[in-house]
């Protein structure tokens, strides 16, 4: 069983819509959770991190964490074509472990 | 904060040759990680250092791979007798951890290795 699961997508949303990206993890000891954005051929870029249950907002991005359900999500409001990328979820019980990423396509 | 720096950006080598990559982490970061990423997959953990000590290596890391971080500064990753299956993006990342700190990873631009 893979430790961090993400739907590979692609997730396609129209410009201006809310994109919802989901991630589940298996290690209940995980304490830190991160979302990275990766454009094709580039390295991952940190978007958000969250350590406590609940929501954390930063601009158009909201990270949501539910440790009881072992679930973390990323919402992108007012999606723009420049948001089109692969979004990687990373979970850190000790060593950061990444999911395979979800491809997001925002079409005009 | 000049960011994480990796060199070279691209490397093309023939099967059987040895290659070495370098990573310079963010200067105040104490942890340095190496990951490998292939197309359509997330970064896969290879090894990490806390200061100069190599604390963990992935079970997937064959004995052809070796990493060092002398004096807890830059790190090198060497692959001996390269195989075509080694073709991937090799990512270095650093973080500041310990003593209640648990910072995210900050990645370099990566080294893309192609083995022909």
Features:
heterodimer; A: 108 residues; mainly beta; six-stranded mixed beta sheet; five-stranded antiparallel beta sheet; 11 strands; B: 116 residues; four-stranded antiparallel beta sheet; 13 strands; globular
C-alpha geometry of chain A: globular
**How many individual β-strands of chain B?**
13
Order of helices and strands of chain A: EEEEEEEEEEE
pLDDT < 50 stretches of chain A: none
- Which structural class should the secondary elements of chain A be placed in? mainly beta
- Helices and strands of chain B, in N-to-C order? EEEEEEEEEEEEE
Strand content of chain A: over 45%
Largest interface: A-B, 24 and 20 residues
The biggest beta sheet of chain A reads: 6 strands, mixed
Q: Output the radius of gyration of chain B.
A: 14 Å
Low-confidence stretches of chain B at least 5 residues in length (pLDDT < 50)?
none
Portion in strands of chain B: over 45%
Q: Could you describe the largest sheet of chain B, including whether it forms a barrel? A: 7 strands, mixed
Average pLDDT over all residues of chain A: 95
| Secondary-structure content class of chain B | mainly beta
**Total strand count of chain A, please?**
11
Distance between the termini of chain A: 37 Å
* Count of individual helical segments of chain B: 0
* Helix segment tally of chain A: 0
Brief summary of the model shown:
Chain A is mainly β. Chain A has no helices and 11 strands.
């Amino acid at each position: 069983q893979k430790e961090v699961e993400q739907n590979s997508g692609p997730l396609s949303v129209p410009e201006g819509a809310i994109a919802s990206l989901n991630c589940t993890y298996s290690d209940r000891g995980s304490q830190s959770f991160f979302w990275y954005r990766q454009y094709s051929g580039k390295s991952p870029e940190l978007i958000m991190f969250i350590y406590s249950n609940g929501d954390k907002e930063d601009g158009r991005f909201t990270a949501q964490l539910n440790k009881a359900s072992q679930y973390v999500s990323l919402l992108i409001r007012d999606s723009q074509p420049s948001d089109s990328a692969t979004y990687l979820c990373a979970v850190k019980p000790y060593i950061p472990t990444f999911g395979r990423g979800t491809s997001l396509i925002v079409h005009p | 904060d000049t960011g994480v720096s990796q060199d070279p950006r691209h490397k093309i080598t023939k099967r059987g040759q040895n290659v070495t990559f370098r990573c310079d982490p963010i200067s105040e970061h104490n942890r340095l990680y190496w990951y490998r990423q292939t197309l359509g997959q997330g970064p896969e953990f290879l090894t990490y250092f806390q200061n100069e000590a190599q604390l963990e290596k992935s079970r997937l890391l064959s004995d052809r791979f070796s990493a060092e971080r002398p004096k807890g500064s830059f790190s090198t990753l060497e692959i001996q007798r390269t195989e075509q299956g080694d073709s991937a993006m090799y990512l270095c990342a650093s973080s500041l951890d310990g003593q209640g700190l648990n910072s995210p990873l900050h990645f370099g631009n990566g080294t893309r290795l192609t083995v022909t």
